[in-house]
Structure formats: C-alpha cells, structure tokens
Structure prediction request, 774 residues.
Amino acid sequence: MEPRGVSVSAVLPAGGSGERLGGTTPKQFCAVQGRPLVSYAVRAMERISWISDIIVVVSSENIATMKTIIEKYGHKRVTVVEGGVTRHRSIFNGLKVFAEKEFSSHLLQKPEVVIIHDAVRPFVEEDILSKVVMAAKEHGAAGAIRPLVSTVIASAADGCLDHSLERARYRASEMPQAFLFDVIYEAYQQCTDYDLDYGTECLHLALKYCKTNAKLVEGTTDLWKVTYKRDLYAAESIIKDNLSQEVCVITDAKETAAQVGFLLSESLKSQIKVEAVSISQSKCDSHLQNILSGQCYNFVCVNVHLDTSENNSFSIGVEELTSIKKFARETKKKNILVYGLLIQYKAWGCKRPPDVILFMSLIKRKYPEEIGPNRLRNRKLTDSNYK
Amino acid sequence: MEPRGVSVSAVLPAGGSGERLGGTTPKQFCAVQGRPLVSYAVRAMERISWISDIIVVVSSENIATMKTIIEKYGHKRVTVVEGGVTRHRSIFNGLKVFAEKEFSSHLLQKPEVVIIHDAVRPFVEEDILSKVVMAAKEHGAAGAIRPLVSTVIASAADGCLDHSLERARYRASEMPQAFLFDVIYEAYQQCTDYDLDYGTECLHLALKYCKTNAKLVEGTTDLWKVTYKRDLYAAESIIKDNLSQEVCVITDAKETAAQVGFLLSESLKSQIKVEAVSISQSKCDSHLQNILSGQCYNFVCVNVHLDTSENNSFSIGVEELTSIKKFARETKKKNILVYGLLIQYKAWGCKRPPDVILFMSLIKRKYPEEIGPNRLRNRKLTDSNYK
Ligand SMILES: [Mg+2]
Ligand SMILES: [Mg+2]
Prediction:
C-alpha cells in the first residue's frame, strides 16, 4: 500500500467561507459529533505514516482557531499557513512553505509528490491516497473521479436548455489529487491572475501550464465534499457508524478480569475489529493515553469489571469508577467512547463467553451518547456508559 | 402559487434497482424514520390540491409492496402502474395511462401539463412544482436545475484528463420537470429504442423530437436525489428536523384547558408554526383523524391536560391516558408525534404562559423517539411521550 521510493506531503485548503451551508461558521469548522470537520480530514492524513508534512491553509481570522484545534486533538506533523482570497491562492501559499525561504521561518523539506485534499472531505482512505500518489509519480498529476449523479446541461442566454451532455463521457472531478511537486508549483508560478482568482481545478492548471495530462483514478463514494447542511447530517451519521466498527477491550490486569476480556474479544472477532489490552487499573490513564494516541477516531473501549461478591447485587469500587469516568471524559474529546461492562463473576462463571448479541447491540447503536445506565438496568449484563 | 387555468397530473418513476446504495432493497423502498422513501415523495405531491392524479411506476415485483404502502399511509389519488426495464420505458408507461385506452381499464383524464418527479427526491415543495408547471405551459417543457458541486471533466481513451468544463457554463439537471402532455407524449412515441434503453433525460427527448427548448428553473438545495447510503442518512436527519417545525396544540374542550392551550400556542408562535384545536377528549379519535389526514408529516401534536387536584402530585385519568396512547400509536405511523403536556393547574395558575423554552427543547430534539417520561421526571412541567 505504501508508495515506495517517493517522499510525500499534503496540502489541505481550509479557507472556504461555507456560504452554501447558509450559516456563519465555515463548514470546515462545523462540529460533527462535537469535533470540527477539519480535524477529521487532518486525522485521516495523520494516520498515514508515509505522509511527512500536513499543511493546513486557513484564512487569517481562523489561524488561532485552527491552532487550538491542533492542540485540542493532539494533531501531529501539521503546519498552519495563512491562505489567500481564493482557493487557488490558498493552495499556492501552502505549496510555498516547501519552496520559498522568505515565506516561512521554518522551511519544510520539499516532497517529490504533494497531495492536495479538501478539509471538507473527511473520509479519505489510505488506498486512494496511495493510488493518486503512485499515478502522480508516473504521470506528473493524478486525481480522483466519480460518476456523475445528475445529467449535466448547458443553458442558452435565454435561460432555456441548449444541450445536455452524454453522461457516460464525463466524470465529476473530486479530491484527493496528487502532483509531482515541481509540476504543480511550476503551474502556479506560470498561471495568470485570472486563473488564481476564478479557477478551481488544479488538474486544469497542470494541463494548461505544464502540458501534464493527469491520470484519473476512480474513487469511492466516501470522497464526496461536505457542501450543504444535509452533508453535515450525512457525515455525522457515517462517523457514528464508524464509531461502532472497532472495539478495544480493556481489562484490569488481574487474572480473572483478563480471562473474561480474552473470551469477550474472541467472541466479538467474527463481527468487528477487536484489540484486547490488559492493564492495571491504577495505571489506566498514562498507559491508555499512549495506546489510544496512535489510533483513529472510530474506536470504542470496553471496560470489563468483575464482581466477585457473594450476593446477587453488582458492585464497583468508587475509586475505580471515578478513575474510569475521568478517563472516559478525556477520550470522549477524541470521539472514543468508553463503555463499562460490569459482569457478575459468580453468576456468569468465567468459561462461558459473554452475551455478544447484547454487547453488539450496545455498541452498534447509532446514538451511543443516548445510552445511559437506566436503559439497560434490567439486562442480564449490566452496562454503564461513563461519559 | 396555484397555476391558473391548467390541469396537472404527476408521474413518479419508482422502478430503480438501488444498486448504488449497495443494498438489496431498492432505495425508494428503504425506510427513513420507519417509512419508505417513496411514501414521502407521494405525500409531497398529494399535499398539493391542484395535482389531480399521481402515477407511481414500479417494477412488476414491487406492485404489491407499493399497494401496501398506499394502503398503510392512506395515500389518495394514486395509481400504480407497471414499469419497463429502463427509466424512460417506465415513464412512458406512466404517461400511457392518460392516453391509451387499451393500457388501462380506468383511463385517467389527460392533463394539460404533466409533472415528472423522482420517487427518491422526497422534499419537493409546492413553489418549485408551481414554477415548472407554469414554465412548461409557456415553453412546452421545463426542469429544475442546480449549480454543479464538482468540476466536470472529460477523460481521454487512456484514462487521462482530456479537458475540464468551465463550471459556470453548466448546470446539473434535477427534478421536478414538467411538460405539456402532448409534447412529452409525442417525444416518447417518436423516440428510438436506443433512446428508451440508454437515455435518462426527458428534457433531451423533448428537444430532440419536438424541438422544444425546456425552460430551466433554479431549484433549491433540497431537490437532491437520494443516491447513496449517506443520502439516506441525510434524508433521515432532515425529516427529523422537519418534524419539529410545526406544532398542533390540542386541548380538551373544557374552558380551563382551552385557555391554557391558547396561551401556550400564542407563546410558541414566535418560534414555530402553531395550530390550536380544542376538542372534547371523548371525541379525540374521530375528530383528530379528520384534522390530521390532510396534513404533511412534519407535525407535532401537543396534548394539554389540567390537573386541578389540591395536593402537589400530578394525576391523569387512566381512561384519558389510554385514549391518548392509542391515538399516539395511530399517528406515529404517519410520523406525527404526540407529546403530552401535563400542567399542574393550581401551582401554574392560568394567566402565566407555559414554559416555552422547556417546551421548545422538547420538540426540537433531533431524536424525539428517544424521549421518555423518565428523562423529564424532575422538570417543572411534566411531559410524557405517549408513543
Ligand atoms: Mg483543484
Ligand atoms: Mg429525465
């Protein structure tokens, strides 16, 4: 998957004004599940080890906001650059950081290939990034495309139909795109003010000024751009769905707890990606912060407790509960939800696998934030959501 | 708003296979808030009094399903027609019901203008329908358009960029479209098998076979087509939002209750569309069914009860509660949610307006189905959700 023998960095223009959303907050800063959209796009880049630097270009009034976001979500390898008044001018500014000493006090290493991706396309995967990078290395430029959803038509001056385009011959140009750095930088240096002010398509500049015909790469449906309010709704639902695709089973290091955790993770493996971690509860904070910092947002933690008391009531130590609650509040900022699974050791035994169906229904719910202890009070297993 | 001096009917092709959704259920039959998408589109047409007949064209295997949907949601003025193997053949079949005696045992009155709209565009408003109908009456054909979201490009045979289109010159062709019946029917009769099998654009047929240049009408953002799974998510969120845009305050006919209901509806008017109805509780079922049958889905009913007991506890008669619960179950099938607002008469007095902020937060919640009595147990006003 990793493109071999090529250095890669990325530029994310995030200077748009979001007029089409009808709101005052630019769409890249709109909160989706409590986190700004731009943070998802940065996260998507950051997860990929072979991307060296991530340049986020924002308008001057949003530089402080962007720096706060980077701090809050612990983003790494990100440089914030001030944008221009148009999309092309912003991208050009982002590229200059690699090329012009006077533009940046800290000149970054010029990459062989630069990815250009939108801050408002949060779901980009390594596969398509790798494909456009390899195609750009070979062809000089490459971009993701998608089939047209609607027929495209040309109107005449009188507001009537002039002609309609044959849908099969055309494609929608999407992001990510990738370029040999020297090709796209040359194109920006050569192009006119008219291009910089009214153009939007980088592939077009590479063709016009460097005679580089970009390779077109079929992208997946999740590359779409958040443009309207309905797209924010859709992004939110997708993120909620993703949240329930991966589980990390965290147990106390005590033998009985670790054993239950092992059985649980084995049972879940047929349905979901599972990682099992056993650590001492007292070391929860520092250990888990390390484990989780490298992970993506679609991650659910499970805390398994054992109650070995003789009677039939559940119990959990106040100190332990406080520690988990604190941890859950921390991870929630990163869209990681912590569920507590309190298993009555005596009634349950420790050979029988936990009730996976109940568990899956808990973590597959589309609205995890709605889950409270009351909801599941009468279930066989008692679950608590500590957020 | 009503187009004057013109008879109008509508054809809704609903024969698509929904391949792009990645599921087996065609998208028009996917449930959104528990109700099939096609039912929203039919409802949107049905609400408009000047549309005479609504022809829904479905594939033969879905005729029974469609008839069940019509029955279940009480749709009126709808005729189900068997589709062809392509979109154009399905629309043609829908039009034949108005024109060919041998095709239908019950020949419908031929309209002067026919609207063509997709079953997977659930949010069409009277305004745009009226505009395309009036434009079709004048120009012979008309269709809604939207700005392009992405740049459109043409690829060469080698999979590389050939050229990109200048975005400002082109538009996306959307639905609804409208035609003089004789124009579009003539176009379908004239067109080739190739057109019927591979074409998708009715405006193109009207131009090619009847020399009719359709008038293009700027549509609103909500005309988009449900194509991918994310569009279903978006539709669901929009429907949930709409649900909390209108309120009907229903009170008992007793003077005190009606008085409280009046104050409540007056207080709410600054924030939401309100209709106030006072009826005797015993006649609740039949009266309300009549009131609500003409309404669209985005409707919330409020039931105001007065508790005049001397002590500080709330109370409501079991019989009354049972009757409301039954009613709420019925209306929920139509996506109308009934909330009960139990007001302690003595403590509250009857001059002070009810707590509108609390009330708005209740009905503006995006997930009304999650509201249970427990959630609000400790509030000043007691609300119950009877679903
Ligand atoms: Mg571009
Ligand atoms: Mg058409």
Notes: Chain B has a mean pLDDT of 78. Residues 8-238 of chain B form a domain with the Spore Coat Polysaccharide Biosynthesis Protein SpsA; Chain A fold (CATH 3.90.550.10).
